[in-house]
Amino acid sequence: MKLIRFGTAGKEKPGVQLENGNRIDVSAFGQDYTESFFGENGIEQLKKWLKTHQSECPLVDKNIRLGAPLCRPSKIVCVGLNYAQHAVESGMDVPSEPVLFFKATSAIVGPNDDLVIPKGSKKTDWEVELAVVIGKKASYVKEKDALEHVAGYVLHNDYSERAFQLEQEGQWVKGKSCDTFAPIGPFIATKDEISDPNNLTLWLTLNGKKIQNSSTADFIFNIQYVVSYISQFMTLLPGDIISTGTPFGVGLGFKPPVYLKPGDVIALGIEGLGSSKQTAVSYTN
Ligand code: ZN
């Protein structure tokens, strides 16, 4: 099943994208895609409910805005440098264990919303990533059991301001958390839709030119390992997002580096998870 949310920012309603591409409004089911939805078997209940109610669900207009396909989660945990070639282009060593950082959940926007280049930014960069949505509380989970804690997968662009991230004192979080730096969606594909999340192609284009083109088969640490690893340090709650890192081809790695400017169009996608598109705009008060 493909979960979507649609409508005006902050007032989105839950929906489902059907196999034929049509989108339906499932507000009548009575639950939005929250921590309790994911944690209390909401996906299975919604599937069951649709068997008898699908024909009564209103069709969603094709032109309506998509929001992020889940309500704001308790956290976004990101894995850094999870593809060897990207570590090299970033001028960093290939890590011996996952590098973790947080991204503020206030950065979340819809998949096709504008990217706002932050105030004072000169080095806003892109990162196509596979994100994991947690379905069941995970604390000290073994690698072999890790996928039981996953609800599904979603496309994420982990926008990053490289000066805020790397040139100012402190942790990466400052360069990762600006408003609009986490476009998520178009939909969450529930786990049953993706036979092997560790073998999906992913790509990103800048103004129509393909600059990231890789596969999650190149992960240094696969999804099972990452979920298990993070759960040794914190409890992952249903609805939490883990973003699994970006492959080679970010602006930082170009010689000379390439950073985003107003008017740039960034499009990205992952096999089985659809695509998204953002236009870069200037910050205005
Ligand atoms: Zn990233």
Q: What's the name of the CATH homologous superfamily of the largest domain?
A: Fumarylacetoacetase-like, C-terminal domain
> What is the succession of H and E elements?
EEEHHEEHEEEEEEEHEEEEHEEE
Which structural class should the secondary elements be placed in? alpha+beta
Low-confidence parts: none
N-to-C CA distance: 40 Å
Number of structural units classed as domains: 2
- Quaternary structure of the protein: single chain
The 3D shape can be described as globular
Output the CATH class name of the largest domain: Alpha Beta
Number of strands: 19
The Cα radius of gyration reads 18 Å
What is the CATH topology classification name of the largest domain? Answer: Fumarylacetoacetate hydrolase, domain 2
Give the overall pLDDT as a whole number: 97
Number of helices: 5
Outline the biggest β-sheet: 10 strands, mixed
Helical residues, percent? 10-25%
**Residue fraction in strands:** 25-35%
CATH architecture descriptor name of the largest domain: Alpha-Beta Complex
Bound ligands, each once: zinc ion
